[in-house]
Amino acid sequence: MRFIHSIFLSSLLILTQGLQRSVRFEIIKRQGNVCGLCRSEFSKMVPHEIHHLNHNSTDNRKFNLLALCSNCHAGHHRYGVKVYPYFDNKTN
Asked: What pLDDT, in 10s, does the model give residues 59-75?
């Protein structure tokens, strides 16, 4: 029974990680692969981090998520740099 429980938990973890990856991909795609604050293009040298606008890490609704470069994300949490929802200049 313990073995089956372990397999279930492993499957659940993989399923959860897959969902998170798909949401992460959607957020980055929505932003055109750029930081939501400084607009730097994400790359290996400019990694992205997903920020929760309301600071509730369990609230993964897409309108609450913003991809930031690691510098902007650190600046927000360490120094209080203001972060706002992402708006594409082409549509807003």
From this structure: 999 999 999 999 999 99
23 within 8 A of 60, measured Cβ to Cβ: yes
Query: C-alpha 81: how far from its chain's center?
Result: 18
Looking at residues 78-91, what average pLDDT do you find? 80
- Rounded CA separation 27/40 (Å): 15
Of all residues in the chain, the percent with pLDDT exceeding 90 is 64
Q: Please state the pTM of the whole predicted model.
A: 0.73
CA–CA distance, 14 with 63 (Å, rounded to integer): 24
CA distances from 7 to 1, 3, 17, 65 (A): 10, 6, 15, 31
- Is 68 exposed, middle or buried (CB count within 10 Å of its CB: 0-12, 13-18, 19+)? buried
Contact predicate 26/62, CB 8 Å? yes
Domain-wise residue ranges, the chain: 2-79
